[in-house]
């Protein structure tokens, strides 16, 4: 009778070791994912800042163009009325 019990204990120990190995692998993957998430967050933040700068520059440029066009329109309508 002791033979099946020993075999069961042996299998349970092997199973415990395998579960511990899987746990260690999962922990390592979690650390990699966390590190990757941090890198990606930094990249997204830098892209967001770059786009915000581009948008601000474009608004500044467009504002200058709009002022020039308004001035040209004002001169043309003044010429038409004269």
Oligomer classification: single chain
Question: Compute the gyration radius: what is it?
Answer: 35 Å
Low-confidence stretches: none
The termini sit apart by 118 Å
| Total beta strand runs | 0
Largest sheet: none
Describe the protein's architecture and organization.
- With 82 residues, the chain is an all-alpha fold.
- It contains 1 helix and no strands.
- The protein has one helix at 2-81.
- The radius of gyration is 35 Å and the shape is rod-shaped.
- The relative contact order is 0.04.
Task: Give the secondary structure arrangement, pairings included.
Layout: H1 2-81
List key phrases describing it.
82 residues; mainly alpha; 1 helix; 98% helix; 0% strand; rod-shaped
Outline:
This protein is mainly α.
């Amino acid at each position: 009778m002791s033979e099946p019990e020993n075999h069961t204990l042996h299998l349970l120990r092997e199973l415990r070791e395998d579960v511990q190995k899987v746990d260690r692998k999962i922990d390592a993957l979690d650390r990699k994912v966390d590190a990757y998430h941090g890198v990606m967050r930094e990249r997204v933040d830098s892209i967001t800042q770059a786009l915000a700068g581009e948008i601000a520059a474009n608004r500044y440029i467009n504002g200058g163009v709009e002022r020039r066009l308004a001035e040209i329109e004002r001169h043309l309508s003044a010429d038409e009325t004269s």
